[in-house]
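[step 3/7] inverse_fold.run input=structure_tokens len=340
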């Protein structure tokens, strides 16, 4: 079956080549005729600067300008401006025709795919190997939506804003708000950037992560949580995001909810494994209390102080982790319940 498919594929390729040779399919000349810039000639940077004086002065401080002017690889790069914008003779003759030059401005109307192709002619591969099919590519983002090759606004990367984080947050407003919550990743302080966890040019995983999974990404910094452990906590092994919010939270330690309410989402306070929490209440002495009626219900987490019902002191602070401190996993032979 495999050999038969190979033979059919080769026959198809041969037919396509023959059709192009005999004019049944459009050849290179036909495609060139459809390109409005096909017959344009190189006019040089000096001619471009006669109209674009401000762009020329700003561009001179960029890495692209230094490469094209001091170490060009070919005649196209030696032309500087036209290395990216295409040959400019037709544009110089008719500046109002927007099809005669490649622009990296959304208002000009050059197709996004054509803009990206110009950049990928030099920047293909590496971190951009997964650009095709990435969420940014599917949403028709152009390189110029994040980068400004015509001016140096950032310390590196030719970003559109002062830094990577500011550039990302211009679109990702929800994450911008999360970074300003009480507990957050140290991105606003400048100790991290979005690119430490995400690859904006594409990734083989969801959400443009720079690792095969969320856990593997977290372990690059939090190696002590990696394990393997003798006693493992199933939600931890499954996904760090079961308990933590990756960008910011109003709960401690980036938790999605305060403790012990986070723990009680899986570990109910009722049933045979409930914890007896006794307080200074009106049910009499400890000896007279029935744990099945008091300690193994949600009422056991409350204390009567006079006529007011307030949370028991064991409900505050670290609560569950006061005893179950090795919550990410334990290597102690007696650590089946992740205790000290």
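[step 3/7] decode complete -> sequence:
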């Amino acid at each position: 079956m495999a050999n038969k498919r190979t033979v059919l594929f080769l026959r198809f390729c041969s037919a396509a080549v023959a059709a192009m040779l005999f004019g049944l399919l459009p050849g290179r000349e036909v495609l060139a005729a459809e390109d409005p810039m096909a017959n344009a000639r190189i006019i040089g940077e000096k001619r471009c600067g006669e109209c674009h004086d401000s762009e020329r002065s700003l561009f001179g401080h960029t890495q692209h300008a230094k490469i094209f002017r001091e170490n060009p690889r070919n005649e196209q790069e030696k032309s500087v401006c036209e290395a990216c914008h295409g040959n400019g003779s037709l544009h110089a003759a008719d500046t109002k025709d927007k099809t005669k030059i490649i622009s990296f401005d959304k208002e000009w109307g050059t197709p996004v795919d054509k803009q990206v192709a110009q950049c990928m002619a030099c920047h293909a591969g590496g971190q951009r190997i997964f650009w095709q099919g990435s969420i940014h590519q599917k949403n028709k983002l152009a390189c110029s939506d994040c980068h400004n090759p015509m001016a140096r606004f950032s310390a590196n990367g030719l970003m559109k804003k002062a830094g990577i984080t500011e550039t990302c947050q211009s679109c990702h407003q929800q994450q911008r708000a999360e970074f300003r919550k009480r507990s957050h990743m140290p991105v606003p302080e400048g100790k991290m950037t979005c690119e430490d966890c995400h690859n904006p040019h594409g990734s083989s995983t969801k959400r443009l992560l720079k690792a095969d999974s969320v856990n593997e990404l977290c372990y690059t910094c939090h190696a002590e949580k990696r394990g393997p452990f003798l006693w493992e906590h199933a939600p931890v092994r499954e996904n760090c995001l079961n308990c933590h919010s990756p960008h910011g939270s109003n709960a401690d330690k980036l938790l999605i909810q305060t403790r012990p309410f986070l723990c009680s989402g899986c570990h109910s306070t009722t049933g045979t494994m409930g914890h007896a929490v006794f307080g200074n209440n009106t049910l009499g002495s400890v000896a007279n209390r029935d744990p099945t009626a008091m300690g193994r219900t949600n009422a056991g987490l409350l204390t009567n102080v006079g006529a007011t019902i307030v949370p028991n002191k064991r409900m505050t602070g670290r609560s569950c982790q006061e005893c179950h401190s090795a919550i990410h996993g334990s290597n102690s032979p007696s650590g089946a319940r992740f205790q000290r």
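[step 4/7] annotate
The beta strands are 183-184, 231-232, 248-249, 302-305, 308-311, 329-330.
The two ends are 62 Å apart (CA to CA).
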